[in-house]
Write a structure and sequence with these properties.
By secondary structure, the chain is an all-alpha fold. Helices cover 74% and strands 0% of the residues. It has one domain. The model has no long low-confidence stretch (mean pLDDT 86). It is found in: Membrane.
Length: 357
Amino acid sequence: MALKPFLLNEWRQLARVNRSDRPWEMPVAAALASGLPIFIGAAYGELGLGLAGSLGGLVFLHLPATRLAHRMAWLMACAFGMGCSYALGLLGHLVPPLVVPLLMLITVLVTMVCRFYAAPPPGSLFFVMAAAIGAYSPVHGRDAILQVGAVALGTVLAVAIAFFYSLHIVSRHGVPAPSAPAQPGFDHVVVDSVMIGGFVGLSLVAAHALQLDRPYWVPVSCLAIIQGASLRAAWTRQVQRTLGTALGLLVFLGIVQLPLGPWTVAAVVTALTLVIETLVVRHYGLAAVFITPLALLLAEAGQGFVAAPQPLMQARLMDTVVGSTLGLVGAACLHSPRIRAAVGAGLRRLLPEGPPR
């Protein structure tokens, strides 16, 4: 029967473990960039600001494997983008009708930049995640300004950690060989980015239409899937993310049985980041098991979920299913030559005509 070879092939795709070329110091430095802001916040009795700083610390994961000057220039640009994304997300929170168009705009612009400069994964994911969390953060006025400042300081700390990490890595392994310069085309940079932004916005509209409790996880899940290099990769990641999220909720349920004070939250976030960055290049599904509790802690630890975690877990699973499904539909459209050609033709008509010859 044809079904058996198909299922065996699917299992091989889902269970395949990749080799990792990351030095062991990279996950350690990433864990420090995410965990240290929470330890600082715990020391000053400001867990919420520490979590915001930890969100900014995720910018460390955009550190490229290039020469030192380029590493730091690119990471500082990413730090600026992370702070702006979160601030614009908070603006959407203050003016709710702007949430969907702002998230679409941020997704399109950041994806364009990442594709133009051939940025490796995670690409635009964390920028959109920061904007989505900001858009649904329960803060107003002065507290909103403090949150933006905490995210910005978290990115500064991550850049500092990246600098010393890069000095160590370059001195140990030498300067990496330069890669071939990117040759981005209009379709790859503009058409793909507009389509991705459109589906991210559509996913948020769907989340509101379904009246989901925490709609910000839907566009993040959608973007994580639609960014796949191929439709095959998007399908594999969709299955891995859904299964990984379901198992990750069990890990989260175990974590909330701990006495989750500020210091415990800081230690758990640091440990989870270390595990994720060790696993993610090897197997995305295994990493998703730990990404789920990490994401829930970063977004919700300051909002008193420990007494009743079950509603939060149900909301997270529903958000992931809805977002991943729309992301897979978006990936099918993104990799359809007919749809891409139609969208590309429409976008080219918007371009200004060149000067007369």
